[in-house]
Write a structure and sequence with these properties.
The complex is a heterohexamer. By secondary structure, chain B is mainly α. Helices cover 66% and strands 0% of the residues of chain B. Helices cover 81% and strands 0% of the residues of chain C. The radius of gyration of chain C is 19 Å and the shape is elongated. In chain D, a hairpin with a 5-residue loop joins strand 2 and strand 3. Chain D is elongated. Chain D starts with a helix and ends with a helix. Chain D folds into two domains: 43 residues, no CATH class; 108 residues, 2-Layer Sandwich (Alpha-Beta Plaits), CATH 3.30.70. The chains are: A mainly alpha, B mainly alpha, C mainly alpha, D mainly alpha, E mainly alpha, F mainly alpha. Chains A and F meet through helix 1, helix 4, helix 5, helix 6 and helix 8 of A and strand 1, helix 6, helix 7, helix 25 and helix 26 of F. The structure holds sodium ion (NA) (2 copies). The site of one sodium ion has 6 residues of chain A, from helix 17. Chain A: It comes from Alkalibacillus flavidus. Chain A: Keywords: Antiport, Cell membrane, Membrane, Transmembrane, Transmembrane helix, Transport. Chain A: InterPro entries: CPA3_Na-H_Antiporter_D (IPR050586), NADH_UbQ_OxRdtase (IPR003918), ND/Mrp_TM (IPR001750).
Chain lengths: 494, 111, 114, 158, 101, 776
C-alpha cells in the first residue's frame, strides 16, 4: 500500500513525458491526457477515501526510513488537496481543447499540464523541506512553460516578471533551508517539528521561520508580495489562468498551513500575529485591486488575493476551528477559482471583449453561462449554503473567539467588496441591453461553460453536502493542531 | 572561516539584488545568477566546512557532511535549468518587445 | 627525497603561473598579454600538476592517468586557445599597442580588400 | 600504422593472459615486448615501423617543452622588468605545410615559442601571421621557426 | 630525516603555492574586470581557468585524494571549449560590437 | 412543515420548464396553488390554543448547523403573511405582467424569495436563519433587477444587494458571537441564556452586529436609501417585498431577539431613536414625493421606523403594538401598492401631478384605496385596523422609563417625534388618495385612457382591504388566535391581551386627535408648506452619500492600485525587499533573534581568503561593468570561484557540476545576448541609485546577521552520520553524495531532472512557436 502513495506524483510525471513525446499527434495526446486524468482521478479518490478511513500512509522513498530518506506523506490533508487538484485538472483538460489554439496544444500544453500536476501533488505530499523546494521548482517550471505558451509580447513580458519573482523566492527558500539545517541538522518535517520545539535559543529560529514564510508568501501572493500575480494570471490563456488560479497560489498557502502548524509553532505570538496583520492587508488590498479595473479577467485574478488572506487568517488565529476554516476555504477556493477562470474565459469569448465597459446583456444570449457565473460569484463571496460559507463561518468563529474584531470586520468587509466586484460583472456585463459583437457560436460557448458548471456543482456540494466533508476537515484540523500523529506516523521506525 | 564565507554569500546576495534592481534584462539575469550563487554558498557554509575528508568512502576517520552537498547539487542543476529558460525567455522578450529596458515593459494596458 | 622534487615542481610551477598573471597585468596590449598566458601560465600549471601527479604516485601509490591527460591537454590546447583569442581580437579590431613596429597582417588585409 | 598499434595491443593483452596478471604493469610489460617483436619483424611490415614516428613525436614534444621553458623564462623576465620596453609587431611567416592538421600544430607551437604568437592564417594558407613580443629582426625570427618546428612537424606527419 | 624534511617542506610548499596561485587569480580577476577589451577579459578568464587547475591539483595534494583529478581534466576541457566559444563570439560580435571601446 | 417551506423553492426549479406552455396559459396560473396551499397549511395552526411547534432536519450536525424550524406565534403570523400575501401577489401579477415577458424568471425569483422568507422567520438555527436571510437579499436583488435593461433597475438592484448583504454579514458576525457566548446555535437556546448574553463582554459587539443587520434590512435611517430605488421592481414585487416580507425581516429579527434584548438601556436608546428618526424622516420625505410608488416607499420606511421604535420601547404594550402593526401594515400597504400598480397599469403614469379625478374612471380601485389610506393615516374609525395600532403606539410612546440622563431626554421627546411623524403620515396619506382619485382629471395628458382594472386584478387588493376591515371590526378574533401568541413570543412571556377601540380619554387619544386635526389643516394648506418640504435636499443628499461611497470605492481602488501596481519590476522588487527587510528586522529585534556567541569554526587560511576576495571583487565588479560581455565573463569568474570553493571544501562532485553548469551558462549568456545593444549608461536618478544601494546593502546584511545567528545556533547534530555509516553498507556506493542523490534522496534527483525536462520543453516551445505564429 505504501508504494501506491507515490503514484499521484509519478503517474503525471510519466504522463507528462508521454504527452511531450507524442505532442505532434494532437488527437491522440488529447485523448490520452483525458483518459489518464480521469483514471488517475478515480484512483486518487479511492486512495483518499482509503486514507480517510484507515489513516495516514507514509511512503519512504527507496525504503529509507525517515528522516534519512524522503518521506512522501499521504495524510488526509495532502490527499484532500491532491484530489481537489486532480478534479480541477481534469476539468481543465476538457476545457483546454476548446479554448487553446492548436499551436499551443502541440507545443506541449499537455506535457506542462501533467508536469504541473505532478509538482503540485508532490508539494502537497512531501514530508521534506528540501524536497518541497524541488517540487516547487517542478511546478514552477511547468507554470513557466504554460505561461509562455501565448508567446506574445505581453505574455513574455509578464512571464519574465513572474519567473523573476519566483526565482528570487526560490533562492530565499534555499537560504532558509540552509539556516534551518544549520540550527536543527535536518530537513525532514517530522524531525524538524520535534527538534524545533527543543531548541534553546528560539529567536534565531523564529527569524528564520519568518524568512521561510516570505518564500511561501511570494508563491501564495500574500501582501505585500503579490505584485507579480494579477498580470501574470491575466495574460495567459484562460485554461492556464484557471490552473494557476486554482493551484499555484494554493501550494504556497498549503505550505504555510503545513509548516506553521507543524514546525514553527514555538513562538506564535510573533509569527502568527504577523500572519493576522498580513492577512488583513492581503484581504483589503486584494479587493481594492478587484474593484480597480474593468478587465473581467483581472477582476477574477485580483480576487485570488483576498481568498489567500482568508486562508492565512486561519493559520494566524491558530485554533482548531480556524485551521479547519483555512483548510475548508483552501479546498473551496481551488474549486471555485478554477470554475471562475473557466467561466470568465467563456465570457470573454462570448462577449468578444475583456472590457466590462463594452460589455452588456450577455445573459440574454447565454443564460446558462450567466446564471452559473452568478452562482459562482455567490459561492466566492461566501454566501450560504455554498462552500465558501462553511470556511467563512469557521474562520469568523476563530477570529471572534479570539476577539480579533478588526480582523473579522476586515474579513466581512472584504467579502462584501468581493461580492461587489463580482456583481459588477454580472450587473454591467451580463445584464443590460444585448450588446453588439457578441459571439453567436452557441455550441462553442456551451462547451466552454460545461467544465465551469461541473466545478460549480462541486462547490455547491461542498456547501450543501458539507456534512460529508466537514468531519474529515475537522479531523484534519485536529491532526494539524495536535502534531503528534503526523510526527509519529512519519518517524515510526526510529 | 565560515563567517567569512557567510559574508561572501551575503555579498553575493547584495550585489545580486543590486543588479536585480536595474533596468536592463541582462543585469537582472546576472542578478539572479549571483543570488543563486549566494544561496548555494549559504547551504555549503551553514553545514560547516572542512570538517573531514571529502564524502567519499576511504579510510578517513571523519567526513564532511554529505547531505548539504547533495542538496546543493540538486539546487545547482535546478538553477541551471531555470536560468537557461530565463535566458531564452529574456532573449524572446527582448526581440518581441524591441527593448531590453524593463522599465519600458510595464504593461499597464490590462488595467 | 621525492617530496623535495615535488616541492620544487610546485614552487617552480607556482612561480611561472604567478609570473604569467603578472605579465597579463603588466603587458601593454592583448597580444602581448597572450604571450604571457599561453606560455608562462601553461608551463606553470603543468609544473604544479606534475607535482601533484608525482605526489599521488609516490606518496599515495595512485597512478592518476587523468591528471596526466589533463597536463597534456593543457599543453595542447593552450596555444590553440591563444591563437583563437588573438585572431578574434585582431578581427574584432582590437588595437595593437603604440609601440608596435610592424603590422604585416594589416598591410596584407588592406591589399586584398582594395 | 593503425594496424601496427592494434597488433601491439593484442600482443600486450596476450602477455597479460599468459602471465595471468591483469594489471597495468603486466600490460605495460606486454606492450614493451610487443614493441620489441614489431621491431624485429619490421621488414615484414608494409609501411614504416610506427615506433619511428613515435620517436619523432617524442622528439617534437621535447623540442616543444624546451621551447616552452625557454619562452616562458623570456616572458617571466619581461614580466618582472621594472619598465617594459619591447617592440612588438606582426609579421608574415611563409609556410610549406599544407594540411589543416599541420598548420594547426604549427600555429600552436609558434604560439608557445619565445616571443611569438600566431594571429592569423592567410586565406591561401601560404602565410601565418605571427605576433612577436619583441621584433628586432623579422628575418631571423622566420628562420628560427622554420628550422625548429616546421621540420620537426614534417618528420612526424610525412 | 630527509623524508621528514621533505614532508614538512611539502606542506609548506603547498601552502605557499596555494597563496601564490590565489594571488595570481586575483591579478587575473583584476584584468577580467578592468578589460579594457573583451579579448583581454577572455585571456584573463582563460588564465583563471588554468590557475584553477593548478589550485585543484594543490588541493589534491592537500587532501591526498585522487578524486579531484576529474575536476582538473574537466576544467581543462571546459576551458578549451569555453575559450573557443568566447573567441568565436568575439569575432562575430564585431558586426554590432564595433563601438565597444 | 419542511415541505411547506421548500415547496416554493422546488417549484422555482421546475418553473423554467413550465414556460413552454406560456403561450397557452399564463405561468402564474400554473403555480398559484402552491403559496395558497402553504397558506392553508399554516392557517391550520391558528387558534387560541396554539402551542409552539418544532421541526428539525439535520444538515451539518458536525458544525451544529441544522434546518431546525420553530413555529411560534411570531413565526406563524409572518408565515401567514408571507404565504397569504404571496398568493395574492401571484394572482395580481397574472394581470399585471404581460405573458410575453420572461415570466419564468420572474416567478423563479419570487418563489426562491418566498422560501427564503419562510426560512428566515421559521429557522431556529442561527446559521439556517442566516442562510435564508442572505437568500432574501439575493432573490430580491434579482427581482428588483428583473427589468435589467433599465439602468435604474440595475442601479436599484445593486444598491439593495450591497446594503442588505452588508447587513447580512454584520448579522453573521453577531450570530457567531452569540453561538460563541452561549454554546448553542438554537435561537430558543439563546433566549434561555439571555442573562449570559447580556452580561457577556461581547454584548456590545453582539448588539451592534445584530442591529446593523436589522437596520439595513428594514430600511432604517440612514440605510433606508435602497428602498426607494427598489421600487424599480415590478409592482407585484414591491407590494410583496415592502408590505409584508423583505423589509419586515429586520423587524422580525429584532422581535425574535426581543426576549434577550428588550429592556437593555442601549437597545432602548438605539432602537427608539433610530426608529423614530426613521418614522419622521420617512414620512416627511413621503410628503415630498410625486411618484405614487415613491410615496408608498417612504411610507413603508416610516412605518418600519415606527415598528422598530416600538420594539425599542420594549414594554408590554409596545411589543404588542409592534406585532399588531406588522399585521396591519401588511394589509393596508399591500393593498395600496396593488392599487398604485393598477393606476399605473391602467393610466400609464404614476406621477401624482398628472393624476387626479380617477374616481370616475376607477371607482372600485378608489374605494379600496380609501380604506387603505385612511387606515394608514390612523384615522380614528372603528373599522380601520391602522388606528388601533397607531393608538397603541402613542400609548406606548408615553409609557417609557429612563435609566440614564440621555434616556430621560429621549423619553420626553419620543411622544413629540411620534406625533410629528404621524402628522406627516396623515398628510401624505391624504395627499396620496385625494390627489389621485379626486379633483380635476387630466385624462389627456396620461399615456393611456384610464378605465377600471379587470375584476380578478382587483381581487387581491380587495381581499387585503377586507383584511383591514375585518381586523378593525373584530380585533379580538385575530388577537386571541394569532396576535397574542405572536406578542407572547416577542415578549417572552404573557404579553398584552386586549385590543380596544375606545381606551377612554387617555393622552394617546388626544394625540390621535391632534394628528388628525393638524394633519388635515396642513394637508389642506399643503401648497403653502411646499417650501419647507423642499427646504432640505433630503433624499438626494443621502443617496449622494451612497453614490459617493460606491464611486469613491472604485476611484480610490483605482488610485491605490495604480499607485503601487506600476508594472515596473524594479518598483515591485523594491517593495518586496523593503517589506521583507522591515519585517525580518522587526522580528529579529522582537525575538532577540541575533546570536553572536561564536560557535566553533574552521580555521581561516590565506588562500581561501584570497579566493573569497577574488569572488567578492568580481561580484562587486558586476555592478560597475559597462560592457555586456565583460559582465557575463565577470559572472563567469564568480561561478568558477564557486567551483574553487567547492574543491576547497571537499565537495568534488559539486565542483564538477558547477564547472559544467557555469561554462554552459556563460555560453548561453553569450548566445542569447548576442544581439543586444550595449549596456548604456542608464539615466537613473541619484535617488533611485541610492535606494538601490541601501536596499541591497540592508538585505545583504540581514542575510548575514541571520546566517551568523543560525550558524551559532546549532542545537543538534546533523543527520549526516547515518549517511556516512550507511552509504556503502546499504547504498552500495563509496561516493556518499552520489549515494544520497540516487538512493536516499532519489526523488529529489528524479524531479530535478523533471525540471530540466520542463525547461527544455519550454525553451523549445518558445523558440518554435515563434516561427509558426510570428510576433503579435
Ligand atoms: Na458596460
Ligand atoms: Na456593461
Amino acid at each position: 500500500m505504501s508504494n501506491l502513495i507515490f503514484l499521484p506524483i509519478v503517474i503525471p510525471l510519466l504522463a507528462s513525458i508521454v504527452a511531450a513525446l507524442f505532442a505532434k499527434q494532437l488527437r491522440g495526446v488529447r485523448l490520452f491526457s483525458q483518459i489518464t486524468a480521469v483514471l488517475s482521478l478515480v484512483f486518487i479518490s479511492g486512495l483518499t477515501f482509503y486514507i480517510f478511513s484507515e489513516g495516514t500512509i507514509v511512503g519512504q522513498a527507496g525504503g529509507w526510513q525517515a528522516p534519512y530518506g524522503i518521506s512522501i506523506v499521504g495524510d488526509p490533508l495532502a490527499m484532500l488537496l491532491v484530489t481537489t487538484t486532480n478534479v480541477i485538472g481534469t476539468a481543465a483538460l476538457f476545457y483546454a481543447p476548446r479554448i487553446l489554439e492548436r499551436q499551443q496544444e502541440t507545443f506541449y500544453f499537455y506535457g506542462f499540464y501533467f508536469l504541473l500536476i505532478s509538482g503540485v501533488s508532490g508539494a502537497f505530499m512531501t514530508g521534506d523541506l528540501f524536497n518541497l523546494f524541488v517540487f516547487f521548482e517542478v511546478l514552477l517550471m511547468a507554470s513557466y512553460g504554460l505561461i509562455v505558451l501565448g508567446n506574445g509580447k505581453a505574455q513574455l513580458r509578464e512571464s519574465f516578471k513572474y519567473v523573476l519573482f519566483n526565482l528570487f523566492s526560490s533562492m530565499l527558500f534555499i537560504v532558509s533551508v540552509a539556516y534551518i539545517y544549520s540550527i536543527t541538522g535536518t530537513v525532514n518535517f517530522a524531525q524538524l517539528a520535534e527538534r524545533v520545539e527543543s531548541v534553546d535559543q528560539q529567536g534565531a529560529l523564529t527569524t528564520v521561520g519568518v524568512i521561510l514564510f516570505f518564500v511561501f508568501a511570494v508563491k501564495g501572493a500574500i501582501f505585500p508580495l503579490y505584485y507579480w500575480l494579477p498580470n501574470s494570471y491575466v495574460v495567459p490563456n484562460p485554461v492556464v489562468s484557471a490552473l494557476f488560479g486554482a493551484l499555484l497560489t494554493k501550494v504556497g498557502i498549503y505550505s504555510i498551513i503545513r509548516i506553521y502548524t507543524l514546525i514553527f509553532v514555538h513562538e506564535t505570538g510573533v509569527t502568527h500575529q504577523l500572519f493576522i496583520w498580513l492577512a488583513m492587508l492581503t484581504m483589503l488590498f486584494g479587493v481594492i485591486g478587484a474593484l480597480s479595473t474593468h478587465n473581467v479577467k483581472l477582476i477574477i485574478a485580483y480576487n485570488i488575493i483576498p481568498a489567500v488572506g482568508f486562508m492565512l487568517m486561519g493559520v494566524g488565529l491558530y485554533s482548531p476551528e480556524s485551521i479547519a476554516g483555512s483548510v475548508y476555504y483552501l479546498m473551496h477556493d481551488m474549486v471555485i477559482k478554477g470554475a471562475l477562470f473557466f467561466l470568465i474565459g467563456a465570457l470573454v469569448v462570448a462577449a468578444g471583449t475583456k472590457d466590462l465597459r463594452q460589455m452588456s446583456g450577455v445573459i440574454q444570449r447565454y443564460p446558462l453561462l450567466g446564471w452559473i457565473f452568478f452562482v459562482a460569484s455567490l459561492i466566492l463571496a461566501g454566501v450560504p449554503p455554498f462552500s465558501g460559507f462553511i470556511g467563512k463561518i469557521l474562520l469568523l468563529e476563530g477570529g471572534l473567539a479570539q476577539e480579533e474584531f478588526l480582523l473579522v470586520i476586515v474579513a466581512l468587509l472584504s467579502s462584501l467588496l468581493i461580492l461587489l466586484s463580482m456583481m459588477r460583472i454580472f450587473v454591467y456585463g451580463f445584464w443590460g441591453e444585448k450588446m453588439d459583437g457578441m459571439s453567436s457560436d452557441y455550441k462553442h460557448i456551451r462547451k466552454l461553460t460545461i467544465p465551469g458548471v461541473v466545478l460549480v456543482g462541486i462547490a455547491i456540494f461542498l456547501g450543501v453536502g458539507a456534512e460529508f466533508v466537514y468531519p474529515h476537515i475537522e479531523s484534519i484540523s485536529n491532526m494539524l493542531y495536535d502534531r503528534t500523529e503526523y510526527i509519529s506516523s512519519v518517524l515510526k521506525e526510529s | 572561516m565560515e563567517f567569512i564565507l557567510i559574508g561572501l554569500a551575503s555579498l553575493l546576495f547584495g550585489t545580486g539584488i543590486y543588479n536585480l534592481l536595474q533596468k536592463q534584462l541582462l543585469r537582472i539575469i546576472i542578478g539572479t545568477v549571483l543570488v543563486s550563487h549566494g544561496a548555494h554558498l549559504f547551504l555549503l557554509t551553514m553545514a560547516r566546512v572542512k570538517t573531514g575528508a571529502p564524502p567519499l568512502i576511504s579510510d578517513a576517520s571523519s567526513y564532511t557532511d554529505p547531505l548539504p552537498q547533495a542538496l546543493i547539487l540538486t539546487a545547482i542543476v535546478i538553477s541551471f535549468g531555470v536560468t537557461s529558460f530565463l535566458l531564452v525567455l529574456a532573449y524572446r522578450t527582448y526581440t518581441l518587445n524591441k527593448t531590453d529596458n524593463m522599465e519600458e515593459m510595464r504593461g499597464r494596458e490590462y488595467e | 627525497m621525492i617530496d623535495i622534487i615535488i616541492s620544487l615542481l610546485l614552487l617552480i610551477g607556482t612561480f611561472f603561473t604567478f609570473s604569467g598573471s603578472l605579465g597579463i597585468i603588466r603587458f601593454p596590449d592583448v597580444y602581448t598579454r597572450l604571450h604571457a598566458a599561453t606560455k608562462a601560465a601553461t608551463l606553470g600549471v603543468a609544473g604544479v600538476l606534475l607535482g601533484a601527479f608525482f605526489y599521488l604516485l609516490f606518496d599515495q601509490g595512485i597512478v592518476s592517468g587523468k591528471l596526466l591527460i589533463g597536463i597534456v591537454f593543457v599543453l595542447m590546447t593552450a596555444p590553440i586557445s591563444g591563437h583563437m583569442i588573438s585572431r578574434a581580437a585582431y578581427n574584432s579590431g582590437v588595437q595593437l599597442t603604440q609601440h608596435t613596429k610592424h603590422d604585416q597582417l594589416n598591410q596584407d588585409t588592406r591589399r586584398t580588400t582594395k | 600504422m593503425a594496424v601496427q598499434i592494434v597488433v601491439n595491443l593484442l600482443i600486450a593483452i596476450t602477455w597479460m593472459f599468459l602471465s595471468e596478471t591483469y594489471d597495468f604493469v603486466s600490460f605495460f610489460v606486454g606492450y614493451v615486448i610487443g614493441i620489441g617483436l614489431l621491431f624485429l619483424l619490421r621488414r615484414f611490415l608494409t609501411d614504416k615501423y610506427y615506433m619511428v614516428r613515435v620517436f619523432s613525436v617524442i622528439k617534437l614534444i621535447l623540442i616543444f617543452i624546451k621551447e616552452l621553458i625557454l619562452s616562458s623564462i623570456e616572458i617571466v623576465k619581461h614580466a618582472y622588468k621594472p619598465s617594459i620596453n619591447v617592440e612588438p609587431g606582426i609579421f608574415a611567416l611563409p609556410i610549406d605545410l599544407t594540411s589543416d592538421k599541420e598548420i594547426t600544430l604549427l600555429t600552436s607551437l609558434i604560439s608557445l615559442t619565445p616571443g611569438t604568437l600566431s594571429v592569423s592564417v592567410s586565406y591561401d594558407c601560404k602565410h601565418v601571421y605571427i605576433h612577436a613580443m619583441d621584433l628586432p629582426d623579422v628575418e631571423a625570427s622566420i628562420n628560427d621557426i622554420k628550422q625548429t618546428f616546421e621540420s620537426a612537424i614534417m618528420e612526424v606527419t610525412r | 630525516m630527509l623524508q621528514d624534511f621533505g614532508a614538512d617542506m611539502l606542506s609548506v610548499t603547498v601552502w605557499i603555492s596555494f597563496i601564490g596561485i590565489s594571488l595570481s587569480i586575483i591579478l587575473l580577476v583584476y584584468r577580467t574586470i578592468k578589460g579594457p577589451t573583451n579579448a583581454d577579459r577572455a585571456v584573463a578568464l582563460d588564465s583563471i581557468g588554468i590557475n584553477m587547475m593548478a589550485l585543484v591539483g594543490l588541493q589534491a595534494i592537500n587532501l591526498a585524494t585522487d578524486q579531484l583529478n576529474d575536476i582538473v581534466l574537466l576544467i581543462g576541457i571546459l576551458l578549451f571549449i569555453g575559450t573557443i566559444a568566447i573567441a568565436k563570439f568575439l569575432e562575430k560580435g564585431v558586426i554590432i560590437d564595433r563601438h565597444n571601446h | 412543515m419542511i415541505f411547506a417551506i421548500f415547496a416554493p423553492l422546488l417549484l422555482a426549479i421546475i418553473i423554467p420548464f413550465l414556460s413552454r406552455w406560456k403561450d397557452k396559459i399564463h405561468t402564474g396560473w400554473l403555480i398559484l396553488p402552491i403559496p395558497f396551499a402553504v397558506f392553508i397549511y399554516f392557517l391550520q395552526f391558528v387558534g387560541s390554543d396554539f402551542q409552539p411547534k418544532v421541526f428539525s432536519v439535520d444538515w451539518i450536525p458536525s458544525l451544529d448547523i441544522a434546518l431546525s424550524f420553530h413555529l411560534d406565534g411570531l413565526s406563524l403570523l409572518f408565515a401567514l403573511l408571507i404565504s397569504g400575501i404571496g398568493t395574492l401577489v401571484v394572482l395580481y401579477s397574472i394581470y399585471y405582467l404581460n405573458h410575453k415577458e420572461q415570466l419564468s424568471h420572474f416567478y423563479t425569483y419570487l418563489y426562491i424569495f418566498m422560501t427564503a422568507m419562510l426560512g428566515v422567520i421559521l429557522s431556529d438555527n442561527v446559521f439556517g436563519l442566516y442562510a435564508f436571510w442572505e437568500f432574501t437579499s439575493i432573490s430580491s436583488f434579482l427581482l428588483i433587477g428583473y427589468w435589467h435593461h433599465r439602468e435604474r433597475s440595475r442601479y436599484g438592484a445593486l444598491k439593495s444587494m450591497l446594503i442588505t448583504v452588508f447587513g447580512g454579514f454584520s448579522l453573521l458576525a453577531g450570530l457567531i458571537l452569540l453561538t460563541i457566548v452561549t454554546g448553542t446555535t438554537s435561537i430558543q437556546g439563546m433566549v434561555d441564556q439571555a442573562d449570559t448574553i447580556v452580561n457577556s463582554e461581547f454584548f456590545p459587539f453582539i448588539l451592534t452586529f445584530l442591529i446593523l443587520g436589522a437596520f439595513t434590512k428594514s430600511a432604517q435611517f440612514p440605510f433606508h436609501i435602497w428602498l426607494p430605488d427598489a421600487m424599480e421592481a415590478p409592482t407585484p414585487v414591491s407590494a410583496y417585498l415592502h408590505s409584508a416580507t423583505m423589509v419586515k425581516a429586520g423587524i422580525y429579527l429584532m422581535a425574535r431577539f426581543s426576549p434577550i434584548l428588550a429592556g437593555e438601556p442601549y437597545v432602548f436608546i438605539i432602537l427608539s431613536l433610530v426608529g423614530l428618526v426613521t418614522l419622521t424622516w420617512g414620512s416627511y420625505m413621503a410628503v415630498r414625493q410625486t411618484d405614487l410608488k415613491g410615496i408608498l416607499a417612504f411610507s413603508t420606511i416610516s412605518q418600519l421606523g415606527m415598528i422598530m421604535a416600538m420594539l425599542g420601547f420594549g414594554t408590554k404594550v409596545a411589543l404588542f403594538a409592534a406585532v399588531f402593526h406588522i399585521l396591519n401594515h401588511a394589509t393596508f400597504k399591500g393593498s395600496l401598492f396593488m392599487i398604485a400598480g393598477i393606476v399605473d397599469h391602467e393610466t400609464g403614469s404614476r406621477d401624482i401631478r398628472k393624476l387626479g379625478g380617477l374616481f370616475t374612471f376607477m371607482p372600485v380601485s378608489a374605494t379600496l384605496a380609501i380604506f387603505g389610506t385612511f387606515s394608514m393615516a390612523g384615522v380614528p374609525l372603528p373599522f380601520l385596523n391602522g388606528f388601533y395600532s397607531k393608538e397603541m403606539f402613542f400609548k406606548a410612546s408615553l409609557d417609557n422609563t429612563a435609566s440614564s440622563p440621555f434616556a430621560e431626554t429621549l423619553v420626553t421627546i419620543i411622544p413629540i417625534l411620534a406625533v410629528v411623524g404621524s402628522i406627516f403620515t396623515f398628510i401624505y396619506s391624504m395627499y396620496l388618495f385625494f390627489n389621485t382619485f379626486t379633483g380635476e382629471s387630466q385624462v389627456d395628458e396620461l399615456p393611456k385612457h384610464p378605465h377600471e382594472a379587470p375584476k380578478m386584478m382587483l381581487l387581491p387588493p380587495f381581499i387585503l382591504v377586507l383584511g383591514v376591515l375585518t381586523i378593525g371590526l373584530f380585533p379580538t378574533i385575530f388577537n386571541e388566535s394569532l396576535i397574542t401568541h405572536a406578542a407572547d413570543a416577542v415578549y417572552g412571556g404573557e404579553a398584552n391581551k386586549d385590543i380596544y377601540f375606545w381606551h377612554g380619554l387617555i393622552p394617546a387619544f388626544y394625540m390621535s386627535i391632534a394628528v388628525v386635526v393638524i394633519g388635515a389643516v396642513m394637508y389642506l394648506t399643503k401648497s403653502k408648506w411646499d417650501r419647507i418640504y423642499h427646504a432640505l435636499p433630503g433624499r438626494l443628499s443621502l443617496n449622494k452619500v451612497y453614490d459617493w461611497i460606491v464611486a469613491k470605492t472604485e476611484t480610490a481602488s483605482q488610485a491605490i492600485t495604480q499607485f503601487y501596481m506600476t508594472g515596473s519590476l524594479r518598483n515591485y522588487m523594491v517593495l518586496l525587499l523593503t517589506a521583507i527587510s522591515a519585517i525580518v528586522i522587526s522580528v529579529m529585534l522582537i525575538t532577540d533573534g541575533m546570536n553572536f556567541d561564536m560557535a566553533e569554526t574552521a580555521p581561516i587560511t590565506t588562500s581561501e581568503v584570497l579566493v573569497v576576495l577574488f569572488m567578492a571583487a568580481a561580484a562587486v565588479a558586476t555592478i560597475f561593468a559597462r560592457n555586456r560581455i565583460a559582465i557575463i565573463l565577470i559572472v563567469g569568474v564568480v561561478g568558477y570561484g564557486m567551483a574553487v570553493l567547492f574543491v576547497m571544501y571537499r565537495a568534488p562532485d559539486l565542483a564538477l557540476t558547477q564547472l559544467i553548469v557555469e561554462t554552459v551558462t556563460v555560453a548561453l549568456f553569450l548566445l542569447c545576448f548576442y544581439h543586444l545593444p550595449n549596456l548604456n549608461k542608464s539615466k537613473t536618478t541619484w535617488f533611485t541609485k541610492s535606494t538601490n544601494v541601501i536596499i541591497s546593502v540592508v538585505f545583504g546584511l540581514i542575510m548575514m546577521v541571520v546566517g551568523i545567528s543560525a550558524y551559532n545556533g546549532r542545537a543538534f547534530d546533523p543527520i549526516a552520520q547515518y549517511f556516512i555509516d550507511n552509504s556503502y553498507k546499504l547504498g552500495g556506493g563509496d561516493n556518499m553524495v552520489n549515494v544520497i542523490l540516487v538512493d536516499f534522496r532519489g526523488i529529489d534527483t528524479l524531479f530535478e531532472v523533471a525540471v530540466l525536462f520542463g525547461a527544455a520543453l519550454a525553451i523549445v516551445a518558445m523558440i518554435k512557436l515563434r516561427r509558426n505564429k510570428g510576433a503579435n
